[in-house]
Design goal:
The chain has 17 helices and 12 strands. It is mainly alpha-helical. The strands form 6 sheets. It has a two-stranded antiparallel sheet. Strands 3-4 form a two-stranded antiparallel ribbon. It is globular and about 70 Å long. Bound molecules: heme C (2 copies). One heme C binds next to loops.
Length: 517
């Protein structure tokens, strides 16, 4: 290969879907999740009927998105073809599945004694939480994904003894699956010579580039963000008369929960044929999705009442609390004061953001910014694919950066930052004290200026001009038309060294205090 390879545009927008196969029947039936309990967070309180319905949508509904993955598997352009490893995941013996793929076995299914996919009583279930069957054309089966396929993880207060054999009480709906091997799931079926393998290899466990298939040509995998305590978060006036939450690592999804959800649904294939694929009246492949047209033309467009109920459910999720009480009262008080002095100009301790320790503001890029590639994402900009899903406030801000992340429940979600770059993973069955050890290690690594730089590089040369050792972002963050480098930031674990100057005992106190928030 002589030039930088133009491999990053995985989806050809230049080709119409044949035969309009993308939409199957609208799924208006909501399959109930086993109602017993759903992780500690949910089981401790009774869910209202709207919350319960919203939870079932979160876990089960795919709105015909499976047709998109079927399309990708047969993409007319072989260089863009990609067959996500659904079949291989589901055929992996249940007892090995978590270890192999990091995906969570559906507690309502059982290993098939004859081998092959699990046996489930729900006809749409596959054996994996959030991966669902959809009827394809002519008796075929498509696999679609529900929100929980990525967002559900193990409950830090009630982890499974065996990660391959969880029950519903072990599953937390929104903590994010820190162990999902998205990289392997995406690259498993690529040819050995396919250079996209190297790009996927740069994704840490638990991180996925949501702009890889709908490409902004920037290599920017992001962690499946843990989120909770939405009711306590700041909201913002975006000029629509409604105050809205800010979502997204860069605050891009800021125009309301329902719109953000619809955007994500299109990102996992829903309404691809009607809303995203190019047509004669929409020839520019990256042109903004037109929400009014999309809703009109796509029978699978998620109904408002589904989005409302899902939003209601998501708002009900609270941060996991570290068990017990802080008995070291002086240390605790000192930690709180240290945090207030060192961290609170972003992680608020007063005002609206105080209950989750975040002002939810976007921090302009400076020397303390963590790896900037994710923040440079362009898909929400004026004229780009997701332009109608971001507010004018976002578009007119004049700068990009990272949103201050809320810190309640942070004891349970190491490693840190949008790209999983600082701190270790706890094991999937780690009890709270063991999880907290990973948190404590991550905090010490974070409050330090001596991190060993992590750079993702090519393990082999890609032809004479791209030697082994080239940072992946130099290869995969390029404008395919011009070759222009779109993100040159090679160090994954840089920035955000606040608190590095504190004494060891002040750091310890801060870490102790924050563990209980
Ligand atoms: C393929 C895995 C995947 C699936 C499926 C998925 N998400 Fe996400 N989600 C992510 C990732 C990765 C992020 C972090 C994105 C970022 O900001 O970089 C995220 C972020 C979010 C956030 C923002 C949280 C915050 O505080 O910023 C919300 C809300 C969300 N997703 C909702 C949904 C909904 C609703 C669905 C189903 C329609 C869904 N997600 C399906 C991977 C997924
Ligand atoms: C100038 C604003 C600012 C200050 C000051 C600041 N932070 Fe942050 N913090 C951020 C931003 C922005 C992020 C998100 C960065 C990312 O995800 O890449 C973040 C992320 C974090 C995270 C990781 C959250 C997660 O979910 O992975 C932790 C932990 C954290 N901050 C703790 C602290 C502590 C402790 C201090 C004080 C010692 C502090 N921060 C000071 C802006 C700030």
């Amino acid at each position: 290969m002589r030039n930088f390879p133009r491999v990053t545009l995985l989806v050809s927008f230049g080709v119409l879907l044949g035969g309009g196969t993308a939409c199957t029947e609208p799924e208006d039936v909501v399959e109930p999740v086993d109602d017993e309990q759903l992780g500690q967070t949910q089981s401790q309180e009774r869910l209202s009927s709207a919350e319960r319905r919203g939870r079932d949508i979160w876990f089960n509904n795919t709105y015909g998105g499976g047709a998109f993955f079927a399309f990708l598997a047969q993409h007319p352009d072989p260089s863009k073809r990609i067959r996500i490893a659904f079949t291989e995941v589901l055929n992996t013996p249940r007892a090995d599945r978590f270890a192999q793929w990091g995906l969570i076995n559906d507690p309502d299914c059982e290993a098939n004694p004859a081998g092959g996919p699990d046996v489930c009583s729900d006809p749409s279930a596959t054996g994996v939480v959030g991966i669902r069957k959809e009827p394809g054309p002519a008796g075929t089966t498509f696999f679609g994904v529900a929100c929980a396929s990525c967002h559900a993880g193990f409950d830090p207060n009630n982890p499974p003894a065996d990660p391959a054999d969880p029950n519903w009480a072990n599953i937390h709906p929104t903590i994010g699956n820190q162990h999902a091997k998205f990289s392997k799931i995406f690259s498993h079926n690529l040819a050995a010579t396919d250079v996209r393998r190297f790009m996927f290899a740069g994704w840490a466990d638990g991180a996925v580039d949501t702009t890889a298939l709908f490409n902004d040509n920037i290599m920017n995998p992001g962690v499946v963000t843990a989120f909770w305590d939405q009711k306590k978060r700041r909201t913002f006036d975006i000029g629509t008369g409604h105050e809205e939450l800010r979502n997204g690592q860069g605050g891009e999804d800021d125009a309301g929960g329902n719109l953000a959800s619809v955007r994500v649904y299109t990102n996992i294939g829903v309404c691809f044929a009607e809303c995203v694929a190019p047509r004669p009246d929409r020839p520019n492949p990256g042109a903004p999705i037109d929400i009014v047209q999309c809703k009109r033309d796509c029978a699978n467009y998620p109904p408002d009442e589904d989005l409302d109920d899902m939003g209601t459910f998501l708002r009900s999720v609270k941060a996991p609390q570290y068990p017990g009480h802080p008995h070291q009262v002086l240390t605790y008080l000192r930690g709180g004061l240290t945090f207030a002095a060192t961290c609170s100009n972003c992680h608020s301790v007063t005002g609206e953001g105080r209950k989750v320790y975040s002002d939810d503001e976007i921090n302009p890029m400076d020397a303390q910014t963590t790896n900037t590639c994710r923040a440079r994402s362009t898909n929400w900009d004026t004229g780009k694919l997701w332009a109608q899903f971001s507010s004018d406030v976002f578009k007119n801000r004049g700068f990009k950066g990272y949103r201050t992340m809320p810190l309640t429940g942070i004891w349970s979600t190491a490693p840190f930052f949008h790209n999983q770059s600082v701190g270790p993973w706890a094991t999937a069955s780690a009890a709270p004290p063991e999880r907290a050890q990973a948190y404590e290690a991550a905090m010490l690594e974070m409050m330090s200026t001596t991190r060993v730089p992590k750079v993702n590089v090519l393990p082999v040369a890609l032809g004479p001009t791209i030697p082994a050792g080239t940072p992946l972002t130099y290869v995969f963050s390029r404008d395919p038309a011009t070759g222009q480098l779109l993100c040159d930031d090679v160090i994954e674990n840089r920035g955000h060294t606040y608190g590095a100057e504190l004494s060891a005992s002040s750091k310890a106190a801060l870490i102790y205090w924050l563990k209980y928030q």
